[in-house]
Design brief:
This protein is α/β, with parallel strands linked by helices. It folds into two domains: 35 residues; 242 residues, no CATH class. It is 52% helix and 10% strand. It contains twelve helices and five strands. A five-stranded parallel β-sheet has the order 3-2-4-1-5, sandwiched between helices. 25% of the residues are buried.
Length: 298
């Protein structure tokens, strides 16, 4: 009887050892093999990607902060600075330029304009948008024949309110969220950035704007306003989710437009508020190598 117990004990111990370790080793071998061959799942190359975050040259006042300081990209001084910027960006050698225009609604229109621009049949000398002053001009300088619209919309999916009469301050006070909601005054940060463009060259200002510490601070504004409606209608959280949703859609467009069979270098030209989240997605992705644009703006 004792001998049977010993045999059973030995078998149980052996099964325990083999159930814990070899299976783990097999699993690790599979994961290692998958990791080694991960590029085979979607082409043979990673795409290098950089984002030029900027302020909108033809700001339409659609953002929370409304610019207070004038900037005329069409002036002789700023055009010279723009040419300097284009020369710096050309050193990145982008193979595709992706702009902040809706992919579904605008791609065919923008590319019709771009082809006309290449044929000298579309004048951008009176157009302030960075789409034309940077996107079109840089693409032409590099010999590109196409511009890539990569933006997307993200419809509101949260609570429906009487927006014409809604007052956020009154609401957060009623919920006891006022102190936390107003704890950080980001308007000073935005105003300082806005003012610097009047005293810095264009390239120097964009270098400052794209510094990681400034992109983080911009992103943090979303993570403080998120308290609005917590425990009630979650207005703040849904607003931030909408922003993430838009940036995820942009990322999905870039993913779709990238050709992983080639060694591509993608340059995104977007409002600086997009940089932090998009950088996170590109950095976390197994298919992209993220490059800081400031390496070329020094």
């Amino acid at each position: 009887m004792k001998q049977n117990v010993k045999i059973i004990s030995f078998i149980a111990s052996t099964l325990f050892l083999f159930s814990c370790h070899p299976i783990t080793l097999v699993k690790n071998d599979v994961l290692h093999s998958q990791k080694e061959n991960s590029n085979e799942l979607n082409g043979n190359h990673k795409s290098k990607v950089a984002i030029l975050g900027l302020f909108h040259f033809d700001n339409l006042g659609l953002d929370t902060y409304k610019p207070e300081f004038d900037f005329d990209i069409l002036s002789e001084k700023r055009q010279a600075e723009n040419n300097e910027l284009l020369s710096a960006l050309a050193l990145f050698k982008p193979t595709k330029i992706l702009i902040e225009r809706n992919r579904i609604l605008s791609d065919s229109i923008i590319n019709a304009e771009f082809l006309a621009f290449l044929a000298n049949d579309f004048d951008v000398s009176d157009k302030r948008s960075e789409i034309y002053q940077i996107g079109f001009k840089l693409a032409k300088l590099l010999g590109h024949t196409k511009i890539y619209c990569s933006d997307a919309t993200a419809d509101w999916f949260g609570v429906e309110l009487d927006w014409d009469n809604y007052d956020d301050i009154t609401y957060v006070k009623s919920k006891g969220q006022y102190e936390q909601y107003t704890k950080h005054d980001y308007s000073k940060f935005y105003r300082k950035d806005d003012s610097l463009k009047t005293v810095q060259s264009l390239k120097d200002h964009l270098y400052c704007l794209n510094e990681p510490k400034n992109r983080l601070k911009d992103h943090q504004a979303y993570l403080t306003s998120i308290i609005e409606g917590a425990g009630d209608n979650y207005l703040g959280a849904d607003n931030v989710a909408r922003w993430y949703r838009r940036n995820l859609r942009i990322f999905s467009n870039v993913y779709d437009l990238a050709n992983f069979e080639k060694e591509e270098r993608l340059l995104l030209i977007y409002g600086s508020g997009h940089v932090y989240q998009l950088k996170q997605f590109f950095t976390d992705s197994p298919d992209f190598d993220y490059i800081e644009i400031n390496e070329y703006l020094k």
